[in-house]
Specification:
The structure is a homodimer of 600-residue chains. Chain A is 27% helix and 23% strand. Chain A is α/β, with parallel strands linked by helices.
Chain lengths: 600, 600
């Protein structure tokens, strides 16, 4: 599967401008000089692209690009767990491959400020030697704000960049930035010029010719980049199964404006705190419709503050309602804007609707807008929330009933446009589930990319490029760097093993029962009645018969144990199996049985 | 909130035909004669409608209609649990109100054979004295088949009915049946003629003028029923938030036929075993496209057998592929039809895709059709399944990409038609979440039903009708009969308490730790080191420091216990709180702490 790339253009160096606004921060000299790995001969002249997260999921995005002994990283995101991972807070990329190559890592580039692209930073940066980071102003604001919450995170070396920046990284890389549209300001595609050709990593993007409070997609520059030659395009596949074009955010604004005209009472809006384009539009609409905005939810307040401070959200501060003013504002002059449109229990919307909010409660005449699409898995919580709202005489409007949602990701026609403009030699769909990557790959083929030059890879799978005379060849190797889930649970990072998770799932389904047998160390006789503690299995007070029978069984096992059961472990195993089978027969449930043998 | 109903028509008795094909089975004389409740004066002349399940959820449908001392029941369904109820198999209606009124219950009427209408029968019938049951032929086949799986279920007294049946129940009720369309044959709306007027309970329905293998909606009879006078319409609200008309099943057939023409390899279809209309269509299409069908999944095979036996599924038996023939059938001549379109782990589709199926494995060139809409909560499993299919080189087609799904429930325009035809005096939306009921209520108001005559009730809330001179008045009372969840878990019915569930959730999130302290009964000194057992919390081998510190803490607590801690319970509480706090501080997790104190 070796593919050949005839470099169509001359040296890329010519295109790298020297008007770098961000000067390269000095790398700290690393204490572990000995760890600096010598260039092994098999890495000579090779460019390796490794997507550490984001090829088998939506989330935990992270990509490493390695040329000989130099590495740069794009994004460092988290992913939220699914139902199979009870108790887990979130999942971050596995950086095992990078951890002993700290000195090779020249820099980290962040495409934009969403958690699936920045969420792992506080955990991962210390592990890889805290290299310099480059990101837009808005992104930097959000990353710094979040870092303050982590005592152990340390200081990040952040340099802000914009579309005119050009960063020389080590001896081999030069990095530039292309502004793209998404649902938050300051989103950049990353252009990595390497000795073998240019890699374009789109980050999250959509094509929006009339975005809200953001510059429109720069089609001309995309075309120019394409003309200058793109070796590899790595492109956002999140919406690759949706036909058509993504709606422009300004179109959504028009729909919402019509809606606002008709609403008489309070308007309560739940959205993502990170949807800053939507939030800007709501401030514009508030001004237009003579309403003021009361912000709710920690992340909402924090994001609006950051974005307003640095000039990315533009509104007259008098639009904001203070706590003191609140009681005097008529219902038809207020918008309450908060988090929780996914039905999250601890967010503003849930609290308000359930009567747990300290200031607000819902009332008849209110209109609640769910201004974000439903993330798979949250449907039931949202149904419950809608029930509770309607019960209190308020109205619900959500995006199925009136499309007040424009997604942040390119749909099929937009994706085709990106491919057409970039004209890459090689193509790699990223940032989605496998079947979405596959759908994106099919689009690329339709756009005329050679099927053999399209790589649908798995997390960690190494895509290798090398020079061959005047050409470049690409190979999706069978080498896989580690990408197992690194789970964050409370203060623990990566310490929850599959065994711990299996136990949680088991106890969650059928509970557990502790069986305590006290045994005379000399005679081997059981002393008294075995103690039983049941949790999540059956309510002991109402199941005295089963409990009593289990006790008798344990006594019998201890009494009748043969020579074969010579030690405590064997006795425990016998109790575990016997009691487990007995309880399953009685109840058709399989609680975890925990035998405790005490010798006195 | 008393509403008045001027009876527009003369006595309903006139309309009750006597051509009952089903004779009324003899009621067994009940042993508990003493339990027969004397008619209390406050029930005199009153008609009470109580929906025991299905007003706050989609599922566990059950309605009781009571006139003085006579009760009839409509449906007896189950509901599947949500994420908050780990380990629970399903939820059935609460029948506390009925259990001491066994002799009053004259009969049970089942609208159709889906689990949310029949699933509670094996559990509930014994509790309410096993009264006679009435249902269509198809429904009876499914109920009987399921009953065989329950040893404890006993024999049901089932009478089959059709649209010509008229059943006299006790002294006050006469029941008739109106054929409606849905996604399974033999669906009936139930017409209950009472001394105060006629109640129409639609069951699940859609309006389909060209259904597959079923008679079309009988609009004429609906109009006639409306003309004769409907006091109360209780109508299916499952799709009340969807605008427009529901698609006809035959339209879907056309779309699928176009699709089949293009497919070259094997066609693998996942659907619900209960979607018999869809299954009929697939047999028709198989014949048309020169393919044969191989059935997979226990419930699929069983349902097709039942339906074919009684003539509700019509196909040439030679279309069915036997195990022996299987190897000789070319890929372009076979359809594999099975269960599991919701991504259920144990169903055919999952097994095949994951390589766990004993006969089939997926291969490149296969086309997999998901022919059912996604039930909220299953999105992630389905995404995973699609990933696995695409990985193996097969194609996925689901209803979002090509609408091969027609829902079984009336949409807004269909619901309006039902209300127009029935012209009820009173209206009660049923069979959905509250916000859907509310949406349906708004439609009814648009259709000209007096707002005061529309009742959006909660589960168990009693809707009471009484005669007033020539009129009937209705009152949605504040009386609520019990409707708390009755959870089925293994063999246990209703024995899983909220405490057991809370414990399961707690252990599922952060696991648990058992702390065992052995104490000298005489001196009160701790003997040896406390034992710790951790499950689902931290992996002990990798957290020796925390474990050791916890041990030290327990020792300290025992040693330093004051006179205040005079008994074991207080000592246990102290250990629980202290260790809990310590572990939270160390890990930010809250495992369940189970202290065990053993005195020797």
């Amino acid at each position: 599967m070796i593919k050949t790339y005839k470099s169509q253009k001359t040296s890329f160096n010519r295109q790298v401008s020297n008007n770098s606004k961000a000067s390269l921060p000095q790398r700290n000299s690393n204490k572990n000089k000995t760890k600096y790995s010598a260039l092994s001969s098999d890495k000579k002249g090779k460019l390796r692209v490794m997507v550490l997260g984001g090829l088998e999921e939506v989330g935990r995005n992270m990509t490493a690009i390695e040329y000989e002994n130099e590495i740069i990283i794009i994004d460092m995101g988290l992913m939220f767990p699914d139902d199979n991972m009870p108790g887990i807070d979130f999942i971050i990329p596995n950086t095992t491959y990078l951890e002993d190559k700290k000195d090779n890592i020249k820099g980290v580039f962040i495409t934009h400020g969403h958690y699936d692209h920045i969420g792992a930073i506080p955990y991962t940066m210390p592990k890889i030697g805290n290299p310099p980071m480059f990101m837009g102003k808005m992104t930097a604001g959000l990353v710094r704000r979040r870092q303050q919450e982590f005592k152990s995170g340390g200081n990040l070396k952040i340099k802000e960049i914009d579309e005119n920046s050009s960063i020389k990284m080590g001896r081999h890389f030069t990095v530039e930035f292309l502004r793209v549209n998404h649902s938050i300001p300051d989103c950049f595609a990353i252009l990595v010029h390497t000795p073998l050709g240019t890699i374009v990593h789109t980050g999250d993007f959509k094509i929006d010719f009339s975005p809200v409070n953001d510059k429109p997609a720069n089609i001309n520059r995309m075309a120019r980049i394409g003309y200058q030659g793109v070796m590899l395009l790595m492109s956002d596949s999140t919406d690759a199964t949706s036909p058509g074009y993504q709606l422009s955010e300004s179109k959504i604004g028009e729909e919402m404006s019509k809606l606002f005209e008709k609403i008489e009472g309070r308007i309560i809006i739940g959205t993502f705190a990170s949807q800053l384009a939507r939030i800007q539009k709501l401030f514009d609409l508030a001004a237009k419709h003579n309403r003021r905005i009361y912000l709710q939810g920690r992340s909402m307040i924090s994001n609006v503050e950051v974005a307003h401070e640095i000039g990315y959200l533009k509104f007259n501060p008098r639009l904001l309602v203070s706590d003191g003013e609140l009681p005097n504002i008529p219902d038809n002059q207020i918008i309450i804007l908060g988090t929780g449109a996914q039905g999250e229990t601890n967010a503003f919307l849930s609290k308000m609707v359930n009567g747990d909010h300290k200031i607000f409660s819902l009332k008849a005449g209110d209109t609640v807008l769910f201004s974000s699409s439903v993330i798979p898995g949250n449907e039931r919580s949202i149904q419950h929330l809608r029930d509770m709202i309607v019960r209190q005489g308020a109205k619900v409007i959500n995006y199925r009933m009136l499309d007040i949602h424009a997604g942040g990701h390119a749909k099929q026609e937009d994706l085709k446009l990106m491919i057409r403009l970039m004209q890459p030699k090689f193509f790699m769909p990223i940032e989605a589930h496998h079947f979405m990557l596959q759908a994106h790959a099919e689009l690329a083929e339709e756009m005329g990319i050679d099927k053999n030059n399209i790589f649908v890879a798995d997390n960690g799978q190494v895509l290798e490029f090398r020079k061959t005379a005047n050409d470049v060849s690409a190979l999706l190797t069978k080498e896989k760097v580690p990408t197992d889930y690194v789970m964050v649970d409370g203060l623990g990072v990566g310490d929850v093993s599959s065994i711990v998770l299996r136990d949680r799932r088991m106890m969650s389904a059928d509970g557990m029962i502790v069986v305590i047998a006290t045994i005379d160390a000399k005679t081997g006789d059981i002393i008294g009645n075995p103690d039983l503690i049941s949790r999540g299995f059956i309510y002991m007070k109402e199941n005295k018969e089963i409990i009593e029978k289990t006790r008798m069984r344990v006594k019998k096992i201890v009494r009748e144990r043969t020579v074969a059961i010579s030690n405590d472990d064997e006795l425990k195993n016998k109790i575990r199996n016997d009691v487990g089978q007995f309880l399953f027969k009685q109840t058709k449930r399989r609680p975890m049985v925990l035998p405790v043998v005490i010798k006195v």
